[in-house]
Every structure is written in structure tokens, then in C-alpha cells.
UniProtKB/TrEMBL annotation:
This is Carbohydrate ABC transporter substrate-binding protein (CUT1 family). The keyword Signal applies. Keywords: Signal. It comes from Actinophytocola xinjiangensis. Pfam families: SBP_bac_1 (PF01547). The keyword Signal applies. It comes from the Bacteria. Coiled coil: none annotated.
Length: 431
């Protein structure tokens, strides 16, 4: 680290990776005046993904070319240390100019402390983003948007095309198709589903993948937010049962399977499918370049509230501007560009993720398929996205409650009650 940030980093005792001199600003050109010599300005963009440093260097180089005199440095920290470091960094002018912000409930402490700038009147392109996408960057109390959403994470059943083909299985179009496919694989001594159990943060994800159509997706969420439905009502409780019924197709000793184990079972070809997020595609391809991957979503089971196959998804984070940045004007020009199709296209191509910028279509076929399916029939990640702005969060409660449920230590109703009782301590329905 160099310049005005060096004192902060020394105090934190953390070495940041100052990646490449790249130059962003606004896409309409022009250089910014700022703290640098001769009117040049250096912006720091802090983030929690160290593995993305080289990609961001390439992405920001495009903006540098259009904005002489502006340099940006992507400064990544360890993901499990980032939140603490960011809170400290945003407390004065020695922190970031632009920062990756966590989404939904995890954003709220920064909003409450006035650490980031409201962007509603600063970034015109936000008016084109879907409201559900902006929810990931919105302050719960004031309804303002504090970041430009950068990635959509969609949730699917990822499968091994070669294994499916070897057993004459096609992507299931009905609930009966799904069970027949998994039964065929199990009968051939192939683990149908590589499910994570001991890493409990994955359990709410799996529950959404298999249970979204049972409770009804956004239609049910709207009723929950209005106080007209709850986690303990039949549709939500039944969604837990729907999910757990797939345990007959998990690895034989599933109780001890952690996240890394589940990934390895799938990439090694010992399991035919993996329920998880679209981010796994790049991970799986890197682990085993020979894998032929496909994705599908779970058709509605009998009695489901939804008649269409729903695709759960959520906003992974956003880019926000520090309220204490000494180069706030230049930082705002940068995040305006980050809301543009030019940036969104570069983001999806370089990082193999789904950009949150509207109308950006990935050239990666599986990402494009995931985005098309989500756009057609989106469903929320309820516990993480909409009931995590207070303590205890629904996501933490669900991770705990679903773990006991799937291990046979509680019923579905008891797991749902655990979530609801915790949320009742702070959640107030919308008037």
C-alpha cells in the first residue's frame, strides 16, 4: 500500500495486494482533479475476493484508457477479515474510495453509521435495475440505494452430463422425472446428489433449490413481509419436508459430508449432481476441466404453491462510495461506469459470473442459461436476503434449525418455529 492509506494498513497489520495501476472514471471521458500530483487522482477499490485481482486489472484498464489521469487500484483482503477491515477503513479518509459492500442485512450497519453515500440521485442507470436487484443494496430503514449491484447468484442443480447420458437420463421436466432419474442413479450405485450437511451455511441454499416451488417464491415472500404469512405456516414447513425427502439420494454417510467433501464427490465423478450456486461452475471446471456440466431447476412437486419451475437467486454485493473519500466526485464517476453495460459485460466475461447490470448477457452458455431461467421465473433467497437485517438473522437461525432437522433431531415444524421465534424479536411487517 502507498500514499494516504499506508497508515491505516499498518495499523490493521494487514498487507493489501495493490493490484496493477488501472484507471477508471466516467465513460464519457475527461480527467478528474484530486489528491494526486498535477491533478491526477488515484482511487482505491476494496474487495473481499483476492482471486479476482488480475481480472479487475483488465476490467479497469478499459476505463483508464477513457479517463487519462485517473488510476484505480483493486485492493483485496481475505474474505473472513474484510468486514472488520472495511468498517475501520470507512471511518476516515484513509479508507477506500469505492468498496465492495455486502448485500441485504450485512449492508445495514454501514448505512446506519453513514459510512457510504446514497446513490439514488448520483447514478441514473440504477433506475433501469429491477427492484428485486436493488433490494440487495438498499437501506432497510430509508429505502435508499447505497451501491451498484455487481453479481447475481442463481441456485440450481448442477449435473454431470456424461453420467446422465450413460444412464439414459435427461433433465427432469416433472417431479416424477426427477425422482425417477435419481432412483436410476442410486440403483446403479452412483450417488445422485452430493449434498453438504456439516457446513450448515449451505443448508438454506439447498432448501431453496428444492423447496421454492412448494412455498411459492416471491408471492409468499410478499405475504411474509406484510405480516400475512410466516415461516411456521404450512407452505414454508412443507418446503422443508420437500427438501429433506431428497436425502434418500444423498451420499450414504451424508451426516459428515462437508462443503469440500461434497465438491470433491461431484468433481471426481462419484456423484452425478450437486445442488448449489452458479459460482460453482468455475470452481468445478477448474478442479476437473474434463467435466461436462449442465444445470436444471427443480420442477414443482405435488401440492406446490407454484406451477412453474422457480429459480432462486440473490444479489451477491454492490459497489459503494465511501462518505469520507477525499476524491468522492471521481469515485462517483467510477460507480456510474460500474452501472453501465460496458462494465457489466467485462465483469461477466472476466470473472465468469452473472452481472447484475440489466441486459448484459454472458457469452458463457451455462451462465446465459442460468440468467435466462432466473429472469423468466425468479425466486428469492428468503432467509438471507429479506430476514437478515436484525439479530438473530433468519439465515443463521435457518442454518441451525435445518441442521437439527436434517439430522433427525427436530421436526420440520420445530425447525420453522426456531426461525420464526428468532425473527419475531426484531422484524416488523411493512404497513
Amino acid at each position: 500500500m502507498i500514499g494516504r492509506r499506508s497508515g491505516l494498513i499498518a495499523a490493521l497489520g494487514t498487507l493489501a495486494l495493490a493490484i496493477g495501476a488501472c484507471s477508471p472514471g466516467a465513460s464519457d471521458g475527461g480527467s478528474d482533479s484530486g489528491s494526486g500530483a498535477g491533478g491526477d487522482v488515484t482511487l482505491e477499490v476494496w474487495g473481499w475476493r483476492q482471486e479476482d485481482a488480475a481480472a479487475y486489472k483488465k476490467i479497469f484498464a478499459t476505463y483508464e484508457d477513457a479517463n487519462p489521469g485517473v488510476t484505480v487500484k483493486y485492493v483485496p483482503y481475505k474474505a473472513d477479515e474484510y468486514d472488520t477491515i472495511l468498517r475501520t477503513g470507512l471511518s476516515d479518509a484513509n479508507g477506500p474510495d469505492v468498496a465492495q459492500l455486502r448485500s441485504y442485512g450485512l449492508l445495514q450497519p454501514l448505512v446506519a453509521s453513514d459510512s457510504v453515500v446514497a446513490l439514488d440521485d448520483e447514478v441514473d442507470a440504477l433506475a433501469e435495475f429491477p427492484e428485486a436487484t436493488l433490494d440487495g443494496a438498499r437501506g432497510v430503514e430509508d429505502g435508499k440505494v447505497y451501491g451498484v449491484p455487481f453479481a447475481l447468484q442463481t441456485l440450481h442443480v448442477i449435473y454431470n452430463k456424461k453420467i446422465f447420458a450413460e444412464h439414459g437420463i435427461e433433465e427432469p421436466e416433472t417431479w416424477d422425472d426427477l425422482n425417477a432419474a435419481f432412483a436410476t442413479l442410486k440403483g446403479a450405485d452412483v450417488t445422485p446428489l452430493s449434498a453438504t450437511i456439516s457446513d450448515t451455511w449451505m443448508l438454506p441454499i439447498q432448501q431453496e433449490i428444492f423447496g421454492a416451488t412448494t412455498y411459492g417464491g416471491h408471492a409468499y415472500l410478499d405475504r411474509m413481509l406484510a405480516g400475512q404469512a410466516s415461516f411456521t405456516d404450512k407452505p414454508w414447513v412443507d418446503s422443508l419436508t420437500t427438501w429433506k425427502n431428497t436425502s434418500q439420494y444423498w451420499e450414504a454417510n451424508f451426516q459428515g459430508v462437508n462443503y469440500a467433501d461434497a465438491q470433491a464427490l461431484f468433481t471426481s465423478g462419484q456423484a452425478a449432481a450437486f445442488p448449489g450456486g452458479v459460482w460453482e461452475l468455475a470452481v468445478f471446471s477448474q478442479a476437473n476441466p474434463e467435466l461436462e456440466l449442465g444445470i436444471f431447476n427443480v420442477p414443482p412437486p405435488p401440492g406446490a404453491a407454484a406451477t412453474e419451475t422457480l429459480v432462486p437467486g440473490y444479489v451477491d454485493g454492490s459497489y459503494g462510495v465511501s462518505a469520507k473519500s477525499p476524491d468522492k466526485e471521481a469515485a462517483l464517476k467510477l460507480v456510474n461506469w460500474m452501472a453501465s453495460p460496458e462494465f457489466g459485460q467485462a465483469f461477466t466475461e472476466q470473472l465468469r459470473q452473472i452481472s447484475a447490470v440489466p441486459e448484459v448477457v454472458p457469452t458463457d452458455e451455462l451462465l446465459a442459461e442460468a440468467l435466462e431461467a432466473y429472469t423468466a421465473n425468479p425466486s428469492p433467497y428468503v432467509t438471507y436476503a429479506y430476514f437478515s437485517s436484525g439479530e438473530p438473522t433468519a439465515w443463521d437461525l435457518a442454518s441451525e434449525g435445518l441442521s437439527k432437522y436434517v439430522l433427525g433431531q427436530s421436526s420440520a415444524q420445530e425447525a420453522a418455529t426456531h426461525i420464526q421465534q428468532g425473527v419475531d424479536q426484531w422484524f416488523k411487517p411493512k404497513p
